[in-house]
Backbone:
């Protein structure tokens, strides 16, 4: 690294820095999200709604691998930026080295262990006789080769934190474009079915990994592998700080499984297909909010490490306002365009289409609250308040959501399924507001006592 090098955040105002991270982060995430939608369109038109349901059932395995990569990647990258903010570059390099080695080992072990009982796993995730063949084909590839995109995903987080948001975006674009091309070939030319879709994901992640490697050749690069000794304390810190990110992604698995089981029980295979269509569209919004939170995280972590608390608070104010505005706009867009969004995935039966449109219009109320919850979870995670970050994530995606999805359908039928997430997000945001109010009062009392 050049001796004259300074971190980009030292040379920019908070507003400009946030935009410089926000644009490539959100664009990269949206490109990946639209890639998944195009996948859904191709699968829906080529293989039908049952194949889509099968992929939806197996998708928690993909989500679990992403969760593992973000657990270690976000935990390590947050510590990395903290050290960079303190000008402790060698410690930052040690954190990077340990994190990449750890994610490689962990995901290989998990994937090959789960592969030994894959059939039982498929049924446990909600498959029936119709969807099992498709879910099984998708899962086999994911379990054997999923370590490729876990390494790519974790490295992308580190590159972004090392002042390379554009490189991360280029890698995401590479992944998306390659995946679309490869999936078209495997589906329509080679006719490999769902297995080809899964294979396309792995190959595309490998190509994106090559793009990320280009960061190592830049003069500004601080991501270099270095010799180290294993430290239990450091591993625990990485695990604790990154745990909210793991929960956030694992929560998506809980979200998918719980909704798959509930919709299958109420509406059968058509019900699962309706939810899968909704989940494709929802994935776009999730990726946008994730991109927003990912843009704020490097700034908060770096400023916190440098003890520049005014910049931390300014970053949060900008991010929350952006999230709230985006949530309202997305809600309005989906309310108006729901029938058109559903139709692009295929010519389904009226029961699938009507239920998906109805569910989408109720479900998207959550977006008004969801983006702010994402930002606040990232904020607490980045400043080391893992307890609050874990509460936000676990409550909105597991504790409260599962309770609501278990109770509401008994009274409201399928409407209760669609309402579970909006109500969960709203309740969690209320708890955040109460926490802030309590903390503000405590700080005022401490100031009065100090005087």
Residues:
């Amino acid at each position: 690294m050049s001796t004259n090098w300074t971190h980009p955040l030292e040379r920019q105002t908070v507003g400009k820095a946030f935009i410089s991270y926000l644009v490539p982060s959100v664009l990269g995430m949206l490109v990946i999200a639209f890639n998944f939608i195009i996948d859904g369109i191709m699968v829906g038109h080529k293989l039908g709604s049952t194949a889509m349901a099968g992929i939806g059932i197996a998708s928690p395995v993909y989500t679990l691998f992403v969760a593992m990569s973000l657990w270690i990647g976000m935990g390590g990258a947050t510590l990395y930026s903290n050290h960079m903010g303190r000008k402790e570059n060698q410690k930052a390099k040690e954190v990077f080295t340990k994190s990449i080695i750890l994610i490689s080992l962990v995901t290989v072990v998990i994937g090959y262990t789960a592969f030994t009982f894959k059939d039982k796993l498929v049924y446990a995730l909600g498959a029936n006789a119709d969807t099992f063949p498709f879910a099984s084909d998708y899962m086999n590839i994911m379990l054997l080769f999923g370590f490729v995109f876990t390494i790519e995903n974790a490295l992308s987080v580190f590159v972004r934190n090392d002042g390379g948001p554009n490189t991360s975006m280029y890698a995401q674009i590479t992944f998306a474009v390659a995946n679309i091309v490869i999936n078209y070939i495997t589906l329509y030319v080679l006719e490999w079915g769902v297995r080809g879709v899964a294979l396309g994901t792995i190959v595309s992640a490998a190509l994106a990994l090559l793009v990320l490697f280009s960061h190592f050749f830049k003069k500004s690069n601080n991501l270099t592998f270095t010799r180290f000794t294993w430290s239990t304390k450091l591993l625990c810190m990485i695990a604790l700080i990154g745990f909210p990110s793991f929960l956030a992604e694992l929560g998506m698995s809980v979200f998918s499984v719980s909704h798959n089981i509930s919709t299958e029980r109420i509406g059968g295979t058509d019900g699962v297909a309706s939810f899968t269509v909704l989940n494709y569209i929802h994935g776009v919004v999730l990726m946008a909010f994730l991109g927003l939170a990912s843009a704020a995280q490097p700034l908060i972590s770096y400023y916190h490490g440098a003890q520049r608390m005014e910049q931390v608070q300014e970053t949060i104010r900008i991010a929350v306002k952006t999230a709230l505005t985006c949530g309202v706009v997305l809600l309005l867009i989906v309310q108006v365009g729901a029938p058109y969004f559903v139709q692009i995935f295929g010519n389904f039966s009226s029961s699938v289409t009507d239920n998906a449109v109805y569910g989408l219009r109720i479900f998207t109320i959550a977006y008004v609250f969801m983006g702010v919850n994402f930002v606040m979870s990232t904020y607490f995670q980045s400043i080391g308040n893992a307890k609050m970050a874990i509460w936000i994530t676990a409550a909105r995606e597991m504790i409260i959501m599962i309770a609501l999805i278990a109770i509401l359908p008994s009274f409201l039928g399928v409407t209760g399924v669609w309402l579970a997430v909006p109500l969960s997000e709203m309740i969690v945001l209320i708890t955040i507001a109460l926490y802030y109010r309590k903390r503000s009062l405590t700080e005022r009392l401490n100031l009065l006592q100090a005087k």
User: Anything to note?
Assistant: Residues 8-387 form one domain. The mean pLDDT is 85. The radius of gyration is 22 Å. Residues 320 and 372 are 6 Å apart (CA to CA).
